[in-house]
Amino acid sequence: MDEVDLNDGEPWSEMDDRDLRASVAAGDSLPETASFLCRSGTPFAVAKRAKKRGLRWQQGGKRQPK
Known about the structure:
The chain is mostly helical.
């Protein structure tokens, strides 16, 4: 069974969105970003949120420049 992290399944706050944007902008990978947000048990939810916010990782998990 996968471990559940503190914020897995919790609603997203404005602070979560700011931290998500900062983590992706810093070039963190999806697993690193999910861990930073205490959502490591739900990385696909983190990826979905990032996509909804217009954020993209480069191939290999890093952010693509705009």
